[in-house]
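ingest -> validate -> predict -> emit
validate: passed (alphabet ok, no gaps, 349 aa)
predict: started
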Amino acid sequence: MASRPKPPAVPLELWRRALEAALTFRTLAPWEWMDDSEIAVFVDAGGRPWFASVLGAAAQVYGLVLYRGEAGLRLLQRTFAASDSTDWEELRYTQDGLTIWFGPKSELRKEERDRYAALDYRPARGARLAWPSFLDHRPGCVPWVPEAGDVAWLVEVFPAMASFAELVRAHPDLSENRGQFEYPLISLKNPPSNPNTLDWRLWDAGPERHPSQTVHIDDPAIVARIRALPVGPTVSWDVDWFYLPEGVVDGGRPYYPRSFQIFETRSGVCLAMDVINATDNVVKRAVNQLIGLMLRSGGIPRRVRVRRSELVAALQPWLAGLGSGVELADRLESAEEFRRGMMQFMGRV
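emit:
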């Protein structure tokens, strides 16, 4: 990206407190005895749960991640269920939470280096994991500087998470015989020091909810043309999108655009493409592409396959009225092959 918008305004003194809390946590080094499945839950002033996990047991990245609310819990569930490169690639762009990574200064962004210069932070030369990187993650957005409220929240969480880590160190079997997604709720003001007082709960994010959308075509002439088209009894199209790895700036927070495609199921030939930005309505863009392809091809497919539940809910009533239908698939081979080719072309594989 050639330029970046101005990062959120956070008082320097608040950054100083966050840095001190992070360095104290780093000194504890809880990744030496904890893995990412030993999760603690903290609830903020608004009643939203955050699912905190220590990273570093795999000796790849070191730090703390806080998954935000129901969306963060769903992401955590998908992370544990991820099985292949496609799943992991998607997770990269759908994160929702806060991360603090400890690493070398060379990996910091310019705004982070400027911040530490303003704080006059000078770790010992050669110190390992000396530079914390604080990042806010939102689905579809480039990781960015946290808002002041999130920085203040981290200042509260660090010492409470450290207390939980000490409890795990003293009781290595703390999480044994617990159900999947059964995690303790930890008080910020009075974190427990006795494992018998932990408040264990089963956490369930529930089904992912999407805004209700219906297909509406404003032009009566287009509606009439589509209704006059025949339905191809053996015609099947695959509809999907994926995030492109290059961030885009167009006045707001940097985001990852999505590459949208329609494929002929049997041959895998790409029939239509589009690029969708962060503010575009993806369902509306999908409908526009489907309409254009129907008119160009002179027919309606008997079946449209998708792997996005929001598309099923929006497209099913409309396509049913045309004598067609939607099928939700776990995998779309044509889309995955196209994505792999695109990533190779972009030098990302």
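Residues 12-202 form one domain.
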